[in-house]
Structures are given as structure tokens and as C-alpha cells.
């Protein structure tokens, strides 16, 4: 509880995949969850799952490629909860797997808008209030390719590397006032968004020490740990949840 109300979390991109698993995992620990996405039907389904897990749920729709909608999301999330205690910057625009020379300006702008600008807007809108209260958590969801060169996804990798840089800067800025900022870096994780690539992903993941792809719940478990008091001394970390991909 915070000031007599349940602790509140905004999980962006939480109508599917890692975001959905995170929203439900945090509901089990008593959070009031702001579910975010662009699809009302999927969002309402996740809200039902959150409530079944014992949490309160509010669905807010917004296109994070639009800066004004992103700012409005932060304001609405604060208004409906009384204050956001935890922000999980999970929403992700993967774009198209293609040679760098084939990347359009529109694709470039949208990927940076969703993957970098939106977390920047949301964090700078919400973290100052956390700092005033003397506590709060921001978790940025990156990807293993932010640290490993992979042909065909140069732009996406660059956006996630930028997000990891923001983690380090924000923990320097907000950490001394009680706001913990960390990154989770998934590797090959099966989600509905990549269901059409299951065989390719299994083949790629078979080369890691884990020898299999990860599940969204396995990433959500790490996010839930970072949000919890058990991680009270974890500041500015990037935690790989990649089956050992980056280790070998």
C-alpha cells in the first residue's frame, strides 16, 4: 500500500506477450495494474486476467508512436490510480527484418518513437513524482541484440541500446532519491507476436546453453523480482534473460 492505496504499475504493451505476463504476475503480488495497448479486445481480456489474479485493472489505449498520446497516457494513468509507483517500459516496435539500406525514414522514425521516445516521455513524466515520494521503480525491457550484432535488425538493436543507456543515466539522476531503474534483456522468447517464427526461433535458441527458447512468464518473473523489495539494492543493472546467449 502507498498512502492508503494499492501500489500501482503501468505496463506498456501489456495486451500480449511479456507485457501481459508481467501485468498478471504483478497482480498476484497485489498491484493495481494499468494495462496499456492499442487493441481494446485484447486489453479487456488481460484486465480480466489481472482481476482473476486479485489485482485491480484499468485499460488505457494509446499509440506510443504519437508523443501527445504518450504524454496523455502518463496523465491518465496517474489520474486513475492516484500515482504510479512502478513503470515497466515494455512496448516494442520490432519493425521489419531487412537490410539496413532498405529501412524507410517512416520505419526509422516509428521505431525510435515507440522504443526510445515513449519510454523517455513516460519516465520523465512519472519518475519525478516517485522521487518526491522517495521510492519507485522503472524497468526497461531491452533485448539481447542490443549487445550482440545481428544482421537485419540494426535499427531495432540501436533503439534497445539507447534504452539501456537511458537506464544508466536515469539511475544516476533518480537513484539517489529512491527510484530504482533497471533493464531486463530477453533473448529468444516465444510470444504470440512471433508465433509464425517458432521453428526458426527454436533452431536459433538450440545453440544457447539453455537449448530452447524462453517463455514470456520467465521474463515476467525477473521483472517481478526487480519490482519487489527483494531487489532493493539493485540499481542500474541489465539482467540477461536469454538462456545464456550473451554468456557464450
- Outline: globular
Overall average pLDDT: 95
Q: Which structural category do the helix and sheet elements fall into?
A: alpha/beta
**What is the CATH topology of the domain at 8-180?**
Rossmann fold
Span of the ends, CA to CA: 42 Å
Query: What is the CATH homology-level superfamily of the domain at 8-180?
Result: NAD(P)-binding Rossmann-like Domain
Q: Percentage of helical residues? A: 40-55%
List keywords for this structure.
Rossmann fold; alpha/beta; globular; 248 residues; 7 helices
Can you characterise this structure?
By secondary structure, the protein is α/β, with parallel strands linked by helices. It has a domain at 8-180: 3-Layer(aba) Sandwich (Rossmann fold), CATH 3.40.50.720. 44% of the residues lie in helices and 17% in strands. It contains seven helices and nine strands, in the order βαβαβαβαβαββαβαβ. The strands form two sheets. It has a seven-stranded parallel β-sheet, sandwiched between helices. Helix 3 (67-81) packs parallel to helix 4 (105-133) and helix 4 (105-133) packs parallel to helix 5. The longest helix has 29 residues, at 105-133. It is globular, with a radius of gyration of 17 Å. It starts with 7 loop residues before the first strand and ends in a 7-residue tail after the last strand.
Q: Could you write a compact summary of the structure shown?
A:
With 248 residues, the chain is α/β, with parallel strands linked by helices.
Helix-strand layout with pairing:
Layout: E1 8-11, H1 17-28, E2 32-37, H2 40-52, E3 56-61, H3 67-81, E4 86-89, H4 105-133, E5 136-141, H5 154-174, E6 179-186, E7 189-190, H6 198-205, E8 214-215, H7 216-227, E9 238-241
Parallel strand pairs: 1-2, 1-4, 2-3, 4-5, 5-6, 6-9, 7-8
Amino acid at each position: 500500500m502507498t498512502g492508503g492505496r494499492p501500489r500501482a504499475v503501468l505496463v506498456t504493451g501489456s495486451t500480449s506477450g511479456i507485457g501481459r505476463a508481467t501485468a498478471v504476475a504483478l497482480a498476484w503480488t497485489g498491484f493495481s495494474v494499468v494495462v496499456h495497448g492499442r487493441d481494446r479486445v485484447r486489453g479487456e481480456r488481460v484486465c480480466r486476467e489481472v482481476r482473476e489474479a486479485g489485482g485491480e485493472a484499468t485499460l488505457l489505449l494509446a499509440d506510443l508512436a504519437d508523443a501527445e498520446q504518450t504524454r496523455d497516457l502518463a496523465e491518465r494513468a496517474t489520474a486513475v490510480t492516484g500515482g504510479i509507483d512502478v513503470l515497466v517500459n515494455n512496448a516494442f516496435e520490432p519493425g521489419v527484418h531487412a537490410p539496413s539500406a532498405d529501412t524507410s525514414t517512416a520505419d526509422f522514425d516509428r521505431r525510435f518513437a515507440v522504443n526510445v521516445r515513449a519510454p523517455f516521455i513516460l519516465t520523465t513524466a512519472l519518475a519525478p513524482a516517485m522521487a518526491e515520494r522517495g521510492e519507485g521503480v522503472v524497468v526497461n525491457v531491452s533485448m539481447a541484440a542490443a549487445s550482440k550484432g545481428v544482421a537485419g535488425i540494426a535499427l531495432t538493436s540501436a533503439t534497445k541500446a539507447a534504452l539501456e543507456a537511458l537506464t544508466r543515466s536515469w539511475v544516476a539522476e533518480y537513484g539517489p532519491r529512491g527510484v530504482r531503474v533497471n533493464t531486463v534483456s530477453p533473448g529468444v522468447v516465444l510470444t504470440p507476436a512471433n508465433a509464425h517464427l517458432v521453428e526458426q526461433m527454436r533452431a536459433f535458441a538450440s545453440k544457447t546453453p539453455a537449448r530452447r527458447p524462453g517463455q514470456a512468464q520467465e521474463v515476467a518473473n525477473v521483472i517481478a523480482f526487480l519490482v519487489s523489495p527483494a531487489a532493493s539494492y539493485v540499481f542500474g543493472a541489465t539482467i540477461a534473460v536469454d538462456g545464456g546467449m550473451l554468456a557464450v
